[in-house]
Amino acid sequence: MGRGIVYMFIAAFAFSWMNLLAKYLNDFHPLQVVFFRAIGTFVFIFPYMLSKKISVIGNNVFWLSLRGLLSFVSLSLFFMVIQRIPLGSAVALRYTAPIFSVIFAYFILKENVKLWQWISLLISVLGAFIMKGVDFRIDSLSFILIALSALLVGSVFTIIRYLGSREHYLTIINYFMVFSIVGSLFFIQHWRMPVGEEWYWVCSIGILGLIGQVLLTRAFQLADTSTVAPIKYMELVYALLFGFILFGETYTFWPVAGMLLVVVGMLLNLWVKRREKS
Fold first, then answer.
1. Biggest alpha carbon distance in the chain?
2. 3-state SS string over the chain?
3. Tell me: the pLDDT tens digits for 114-128?
4. From CA 21, how far away is CA 202, in angstroms rounded?
5. I want to staple 176 with a disulfide (CB 3.0 to 4.6 A). Which of 71, 80, 206, 278 is the partner?
6. What is the pTM of this model?
7. What is the CA radius of gyration of the chain?
8. What confidence tier does 89 reach under pLDDT thresholds 50, 70, 90?
9. What are the tens digits of pLDDT across the range 248-278?
């Protein structure tokens, strides 16, 4: 249990730095940043899978491919929005993904959803719209794009839940990386060559993504979801700190209140599911 909590703290920190670099590299096309994120993970995961004889193709090609495609589009939209609005706002709005995950699970997987879960989701939705309504740095297009990104993340959660123990977790991750690499190459005409210290940052974004991905998976393997999942919201704390220190991003009362409602709604949803299991 203790190691799982530590792993989740480190994973959240790694993902936060990855998001920070995605914003810092705003001179690059967002899809080029996606490429660096994916290739930096792929070059480590793929050889390891071959050495351990882990299936690269998997058994559920359709669902693995759909997961890979949706994850690629979601990440691309997220990196686009990161370059347009404050870092903390982008991270907070993407945290509405579990809303869509619950909806998809209810209609597609036929999972039972309690009344308090619906209430918790409404709280998060209210928080998201408060953020949009009072923070004029969040333009309508960015709000739509980040909402679509969150929706796709929610659908990905549902697919992963469906795959469950049917596939090795590295097979699932590898599909995400392959689709991201191939998909981002369609925008190569908008890319430019990194120079100087930029090579350090573009390489780091993939390594940080790998660290976050592996430790996140290990955290969920070593501890209950209801224990470690809330720690992932430390990403928002890190994003607010990084945004303030490095980009001078500040927030008034109401945007912060909206962020808190998003987080409270998601934590309430986790609490309800934990009570149901116990």
1. 55
2. CHHHHHHHHHHHHHHHHHHHHHHHCCCCCHHHHHHHHHHHHHHHHHHHHHHCCCCCCCCCHHHHHHHHHHHHHHHHHHHHHHCCCCHHHHHHHHCCHHHHHHHHHHHCCCCCCCHHHHHHHHHHHHHHHHHHHHCCCCCHHHHHHHHHHHHHHHHHHHHHHHHHHHCCHHHHHHHHHHHHHHHHHCCHHHCCCCCCCHHHHHHHHHHHHHHHHHHHHHHHHHCCHHHHHHHHHHHHHHHHHHHHHHHCCCCCHHHHHHHHHHHHHHHHHHHHHHHHHC
3. 888 888 888 988 999
4. 8
5. 71
6. 0.89
7. 18
8. very high
9. 999 999 999 999 999 898 888 778 777 776 6
Which residue is associated with the tokens 């500040």? 250
Look at residues 163, 129, 133, 22 and name the one whose alpha carbon lies nearest to residue 80: 22
Tokens of 121: 């989701």
